[in-house]
């Protein structure tokens, strides 16, 4: 497995990889890799393309009061996981490479970027869309793999690629869960033992709500009951909503492609999760 820390190194290794494998598959990450990331790399390797994984904790997607400085970093552990998974090239840029002093362009997505995480974290999706567009260009990615755990992010990236006619195919990969249902996340390590024991209640609330809606419960009342249940379980929910899966528009009844999305705070950790109906 090769490692690139400069654009020149990336370019040399990427060209050789593309010559050998034909297509390039990119797995964009912020490191602190876990089984959820491993599933993305496994899918990228299975695609037959030469796999590049980027590790970059992107400052522009963190708000001023967010956890950029305490975002977990584990380069040695990440490289070991990627080597074992069959990743061909790891791209480890620094902030000055991604955002040189003269940098003056950003991508400002609307549509699915509005509301929910977009409302709770102003500027977040602008940072995500901008860094992903840079990564797609730097790596000349034919394919890029994203987890469904960050459902809204996945829809925003699909919108960016479609609207800017980027030649990168976006592949969404199902959320990987712990045995008790908790969606894997780099931030789960910040849960105390007591919070970790409570955390699966978020997924349980989503699956319980889905069962109620499938049985014809009115959406408004069912959502209110699920939010009250989360509060009773010690969560501070930011939102729990039934939305059209692609546009993230709130809907009042289940329809094809519908999604339940939720974010709730447990102690200092903001847990995100979502499920579909299909
Ligand atoms: O999902 C993430 O880890 C990040 O938002 C991403 C896509 C790597 C962009 O920084």
Task: Summarize this structure briefly.
It is built from 10 helices and 9 strands.
Task: Note the main attributes of this structure.
278 residues; alpha/beta; Rossmann fold; Pantoate--beta-alanine Ligase, Chain: A,domain 2; 2 domains; six-stranded parallel beta sheet; three-stranded antiparallel beta sheet; 10 helices; binds pantoate
The fold-level CATH name of the largest domain is Rossmann fold
Return residue spans where pLDDT drops below 50 for at least 5 consecutive residues: none
Q: What is the C-level CATH assignment of the largest domain?
A: Alpha Beta
- Count up the helices: 10
Q: For the terminal residues, how far apart are their CA atoms? A: 38 Å
Please bin the fraction of helical residues.
25-40%
Apparent shape: globular
Outline the fold blueprint.
Layout: E1 2-4, H1 7-21, E2 24-29, H2 35-46, E3 50-55, H3 75-85, E4 89-91, H4 95-98, H5 117-120, H6 124-139, E5 143-147, H7 151-163, E6 169-173, H8 193-198, H9 201-214, H10 219-232, E7 236-244, E8 258-266, E9 269-276
Parallel strand pairs: 1-4, 2-3, 2-5, 3-4, 5-6
Antiparallel strand pairs: 7-8, 8-9
Helix pairs in contact: 6-7, 9-10
